[in-house]
Automatic annotation (TrEMBL):
The lineage of its organism: Eukaryota, Fungi, Dikarya, Ascomycota, Pezizomycotina. This is Small ribosomal subunit protein mS29. The keyword Transit peptide applies. Keywords: Mitochondrion, Ribonucleoprotein, Ribosomal protein, Transit peptide. The keyword Lipid biosynthesis does not apply. Residues 13-93 are annotated as: Disordered.
């Protein structure tokens, strides 16, 4: 027996073990086996207990674990085969184009017998209230170019696009005709609850303007001007500084040119415009003037020259219809910032400023026409100044006491209140039973409403939706069952 083993047997458990004895006991025994069944820790010249370094390639695919002996072991992870990607990613702007895609016909829908095409006199006839009229093919192309149709509307369910003549339609078109005949300007704001048909009323006004050969300009979504989603730059020599949006102006010029080409080709220029990128002589057509905008850098300059020509008072100049949807977005501070990183007011954007000056009456239309703005209740910011101003105008039109400012609220915007100080307010309400019956009969004739349209069915749907056209569509069309 060796000396270390015999000394260990003589020691009692309660007595401390001398340091020299424990050191001697830790030395390997001469009878220790010369091989081991465990993996050697000293592989590749590494020291005992030091793990081998992993390369960057294998570092993400292995995990480290501790075995019972205190040594580190690495275990490879089992990767699942996700499969090869066969499709390609969408191109820039492809998702937005799909989201805003408009389908105006459905070959599976039945053609409606007796459906007549829209004529300007139909929108002025009170006896036509509650009837459906189809939009002509050429007008469809112009309205699509102006983005008058909305993706949320029920156009893809019918054979061809048609619109319902309502009492609000007759009232609005009559005011537009009266203003144009007197070379005056109608300034109105269309408001109402959600999905009551405000955007459709704007579409009907544009259809009337196109059929009467007016020059129609439309801003389909005001939020595209104020949510910092398009490029902008300061306009030189402006105080306070205004900002132009060249890319949006170029897109709008192309829409104006395509939708009003026949009218613009008949109108001649009366001013010389040396600031344009190309020479446009006097007596050139307004269509040739708009053709000068070939690049975004010159879009705002060309639009200013075009607007100057429209402001020339001449008996041969047609009236102008300028419309905007989503009024709340231009009645607040925008998301753009100045070079000093200060937020820019929406009315400091040059195109918004031009619309607001026209809506307020500061820049009248000398040849008559109408400027219309519609509010929106979906995806709209809150504008206390606009809501108060419209409530005041409604009270003044009704002959009642207008509401006053809240004394302890400091969020009012004086510029927005000045813009809406003298406008007319048209509130779109629910449909009458006569209008609801005409709409349901059109749905049944198209083959998408599989129910008998009688007085009882009309009263049930009308009561369920409170006359709101969007709610009636939900109650009647979205609950269809085969």
């Amino acid at each position: 027996m060796s000396a270390p083993l015999s000394l260990r047997c003589l020691l009692r458990p309660s007595a401390p073990v001398p340091r020299s004895i424990t050191a001697a006991a830790s030395t390997p025994s001469p009878w220790t086996a010369t091989f081991s069944t465990t993996a050697s820790a000293q592989k590749d010249g590494q020291k005992m207990g030091t793990p081998k370094k992993m390369s960057a390639k294998t570092k993400g695919s292995v995990s480290t674990h501790m075995n019972p002996t205190g040594k580190k072991q690495t275990m490879a992870k089992f990767k699942k085969n996700k499969g090869a990607k066969t499709g390609k990613p969408p191109l820039p702007g492809e998702r937005k184009a799909l989201r805003k895609r408009i389908q105006l016909s459905n070959n599976n829908a039945l053609p409606v017998a007796g459906l007549v095409e829209l004529e300007p006199k139909d929108l002025l006839d009170p006896t036509k209230v509650g009837t459906m009229v189809a939009l002509p093919g050429e007008m469809q192309d112009s309205l699509r170019t102006l983005e008058a149709f909305k993706p949320t509307q029920f156009w893809p369910m019918f054979r061809q696009p048609a619109t319902l003549i309502r009492s609000e339609t007759v009232d609005l078109i009559a005011q537009m005709q009266e203003a144009a005949s007197k070379k005056q300007m109608l300034r109105a704001v269309i408001t109402g609850e959600r999905i009551t048909g405000k955007s459709l009323l704007l579409l009907q006004s544009m259809a009337y303007g196109l059929s009467k050969e007016w020059i129609v300009i439309n801003i389909p979504e005001a939020q595209e001007l104020t949510t910092a989603c398009t490029e902008y730059a300061p306009v030189p020599d402006t105080e306070p500084v205004q900002y132009m949006q060249n890319n949006y102006c170029l897109k709008m010029i192309q829409a104006i040119k395509k939708a009003n080409s026949s009218v613009l080709a008949k109108q001649a220029t009366v001013y010389s415009h040396p600031e344009l990128p190309q020479n446009i002589p006097i007596n050139s057509s307004l269509l040739a003037l708009l053709n000068a905008a070939k690049e975004p850098e010159s879009a705002w300059v060309v639009f200013q020259a075009f607007w100057k020509e429209l402001m020339h008072k001449d008996a041969t100049r047609p009236p102008i219809l300028f419309t905007l949807d989503g009024l709340q977005h231009i009645m607040k501070i925008s998301d753009y910032r100045s070079p000093a990183f200060e937020l820019i007011h929406s009315q400091d954007l040059a195109l918004v400023r031009l619309f607001c000056d026209t809506l307020s009456g500061a820049s009248p239309l000398p040849n008559g026409g109408a400027i219309l703005a519609a509010t929106t209740r979906g995806n709209a910011p809150r504008s206390p100044s606009m809501e108060l101003a419209l409530a005041q105008r409604e009270a003044e039109q009704a002959g009642t006491e207008p509401p006053a400012h809240e004394p302890y609220f400091k969020g009012y915007d004086t510029r927005s209140e000045a813009t809406l100080k003298s406008v007319k307010v048209m509130k779109v309400k629910g449909m009458s039973k006569l209008e609801a019956r005409g709409l349901m009969e059109y749905w049944a004739s198209s083959g998408i409403l599989r129910a008998t349209v009688d007085e009882k069915a009309v009263a049930a749907k009308w009561a369920l939706s409170a006359g709101v056209v969007g709610e009636m569509e939900r109650a009647s069309l979205l609950t269809m069952r085969p």
